[in-house]
Amino acid sequence: MFKKFWILFSAFAYEDTRHPFEFLIRYFYLFISVLIYRFFFDVVLSQKNIQLDDFSMPYPVFLISGVAAMHLIYLAIKVVDGALLSLRSSGVIDWVLISHSSFWELFAAKALWYFFLGLTEFSAIIVSSRLVLGVSLRPFLSPMLFLALLVLFLIYMAIGALVSCLILVFRRGYSLFTFVNQLSILFGGVFFPVKSFPGPLKMVAQIMPITHGLKLIRYLIAVPNTGDTIGQIVLLGIATIFSLLLGFVFFKYSLAYAIKNDLLINEN
Questions:
Q1: Is the pTM higher than 0.85?
Q2: Residue 56 has what DSSP assignment?
Q3: C-alpha dihedral over 93, 96, 97, 101, to 10 degrees?
Q4: How far is CA 156 from CA 126, 127, 151, 234, in A?
Q5: pLDDT, tens digit, for every residue of 201-260?
Q6: Could you write out the DSSP letters of every residue in 100-156?
Q7: Are 189 and 70 in contact (CB under 8 A)?
Q8: Residue 1 vs residues 6, 86, 95, 229: alpha-carbon distances, Å
Q9: Cα-trace Rg, the chain
Q10: Where are the chain's structural domains?
């Protein structure tokens, strides 16, 4: 079982890295992004601290943590759809499908690969921030931070499963992925604190999982004592379990419907 799972994981890794130049461009883009943010820091905000409830942090750290988390979320929301596309493709993983891998095996391997890829992108942004902005790496090395990132990844993976339900049944709705990502960026407190939003937008922000995930991530970065965060992680964990159950119960029935009606056939 482990050997088969490793083969699937390796297949997805090969599929995304078989063009080394394009793969390296992904990380070069992250470095350039940090250079762009440095311009804003130097001109406007480099000396300002951001007050977040009962703690504060420098704006560069505030922004970098939000941007890095968004890259992880972008991958998380595409996990289920990525596994579906693999089922429909005639590309590099055909040799894996010959081994009669189930969708759920493909999904698990894709999820692990995307989480690993997301962590490398998160790390690339943080290391670039160290090189360009002088941001300390120490606060980002907490094991609790890894756990918080995992919880946030799982929540958005469940949201991606719900979006994929619509795509399976109606064969349209890919724009919803972009909509969810943009909504998270605009109202999740990525660039500016939620407390600075007007009243109605604060209400929107409070229903966004990224708002609470980023609050926890930033607290772990800003406050050395992580004992106070266990309760927050437990609450987010409960929300994650509920989201996963809801997302994959709906997805299970949507997948069965799609198989029954031959909706998994590639339109191309």
A1: no
A2: E
A3: -130
A4: 21, 25, 9, 17
A5: 888 888 888 888 888 888 888 876 666 667 777 778 888 888 888 888 888 888 788 777
A6: T--HHHHHHHHHHHHHHHHHHHHHHHHHHHHHHH---SGGGG-HHHHHHHHHHHHHH
A7: no
A8: 9, 20, 17, 36
A9: 20
A10: 2-260
